[in-house]
């Protein structure tokens, strides 16, 4: 029996977590779900988007599955995702994008993984107004040797372990010379210890164009926080959209698994959300928990069921909804 903290999240979060729990139950894996509050729903209920009890539970049980959390735009509380990633030093955000059988997408045979530094960079929301009024604002982007080494080594070690051939380090060191320049220098240093892995670096704007033109040239991308955030949504678009890309936030002691997508307020409560992205995140969690046989079993079920036009969700061109898809997955399992 595995103890897993469950944060259902906001928007479509409760619908897709319910689906994933049903599918995992049908797979036969034994999980003790420990519910915890976070995000907008927690804020509305308790006045705190990240209650201390949630922090305590994650600290204790060390593994969490998390639905998307809404973060107010332009005002309001700081991102709970960023807070959790920083507080538990979940330094590696691993985001695979892989073509699925039977799903219409701009390319076939895409199979890339983004390793996004998860605790610093331009993404941490350290901002301030300067002077009087609100007409001048600044943001701070932090890059340290320690955090850069952790994520870049994680990418290389993963490549060696999983028979991946090439790492592309993505940066903007032509302009942000000190910060992403440091990240690039560290990548070049570390790459020398892995002569079996091809290493190249690429400027982020060119990378965005190259990913759209020829995504097959990429195997593993390692990059800083904000670039990884943006490029992973782009990568989702190459394989069918945000409904199918999962992710893992891994640290040395704790790990949290969540979809790449957000709370999708435009479709929340309609019963049409695609739970595959969160399910793929849960599969990454099962592998983290050494449940590889069950992880394979669920992956195979997804590959079978998702081909069915009558069953899969509308974002993938199907005629089904969250319920038809979940039911079919459970039956397949
Ligand atoms: P979003 O990812 O929620 O939605 C973008 C588009 O993709 C929408 O059209 C949505 O309907 C669609 N989509 C997303 N997931 C889907 C799914 N599973 N099935 C079908 N369609 C899906 O991005 P957004 O609208 O920019 O952000 C909404 C909120 O989510 C914001 O508050 C943002 O801060 C938050 N967010 C949270 C996380 C997270 O918790 N890790 C990540 C990204 C955004």
Task: Describe the SSE topology.
Blueprint: E1 2-7, H1 13-27, E2 31-35, H2 40-46, H3 52-61, E3 63-66, H4 80-87, E4 92-98, E5 111-117, E6 127-129, E7 137-139, H5 145-161, E8 166-171, H6 179-191, E9 198-203, H7 204-213, E10 220-223, H8 225-238, E11 246-250, E12 255-259, H9 276-288, H10 292-305, H11 322-332
Parallel strand pairs: 1-2, 1-3, 3-12, 5-10, 8-9, 8-10
Antiparallel strand pairs: 4-5, 4-11, 6-7, 11-12
The structure holds nicotinamide-adenine-dinucleotide.
Compact overview of the structure:
The chain is an alpha/beta fold and 333 residues long.
Number of helices: 11
User: Pairing-aware structural class of the strands and helices?
Assistant: alpha/beta
Strand content: 15-25%
User: What's the assembly state of these chains?
Assistant: single chain
**Residue share in helices?**
25-40%
Shape: globular
Extract low-pLDDT stretches.
none
Ligands present: nicotinamide-adenine-dinucleotide
Distance between the termini: 19 Å
Return the average pLDDT rounded to an integer: 96
Count of DSSP strands: 12
Q: Within the largest sheet, what's the order of strands?
A: 2-1-3-12-11-4-5-10-8-9
How do the helices and strands follow one another from N- to C-terminus? Answer: EHEHHEHEEEEHEHEHEHEEHHH
Radius of gyration: 20 Å
């Amino acid at each position: 029996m595995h103890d897993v903290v469950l944060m259902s999240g906001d928007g479509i979060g409760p619908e897709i977590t319910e689906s994933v729990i049903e599918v995992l139950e049908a797979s036969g894996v034994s999980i003790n779900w420990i519910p915890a509050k976070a995000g907008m729903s927690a804020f509305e209920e308790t006045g705190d988007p990240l209650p201390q009890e949630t922090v305590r539970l994650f600290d204790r049980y060390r593994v969490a599955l998390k639905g998307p959390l809404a973060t107010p735009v332009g005002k309001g509380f700081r991102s709970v995702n960023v807070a959790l990633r920083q507080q538990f030093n979940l330094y590696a955000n691993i985001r695979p994008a892989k073509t699925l059988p039977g799903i219409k997408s701009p390319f076939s045979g895409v199979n890339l993984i983004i390793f996004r530094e998860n605790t610093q960079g331009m993404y941490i929301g350290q901002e301030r107004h300067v002077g009087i009024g609100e007409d001048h604002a600044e943001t701070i982007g932090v890059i340290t040797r320690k955090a850069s080494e952790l994520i870049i080594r994680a990418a290389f070690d993963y490549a060696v372990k999983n028979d991946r051939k090439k790492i592309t380090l993505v940066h903007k060191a032509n302009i942000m010379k000190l910060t992403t320049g440091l990240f690039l220098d560290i990548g070049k240093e570390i790459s020398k210890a892995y002569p079996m892995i091809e290493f190249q670096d690429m400027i982020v704007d060119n990378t965005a164009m190259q990913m759209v033109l020829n995504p097959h040239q990429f195997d593993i991308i390692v990059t800083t926080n904000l670039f990884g955030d943006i490029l992973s949504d782009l990568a989702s678009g190459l394989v069918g959209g945000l409904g199918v890309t999962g992710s893992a936030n891994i640290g040395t002691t704790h790990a949290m698994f969540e979809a790449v997508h957000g709370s999708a307020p435009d479709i929340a409560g309609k019963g049409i959300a695609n739970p595959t992205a969160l399910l793929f995140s849960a599969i990454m969690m099962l592998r983290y928990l050494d449940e590889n046989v069950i992880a394979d079993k669920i992956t195979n079920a997804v590959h079978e069921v998702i081909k069915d036009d009558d069953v899969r969700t509308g974002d993938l061109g199907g005629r089904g909804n969250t319920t038809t898809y979940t039911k079919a997955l459970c039956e397949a399992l």
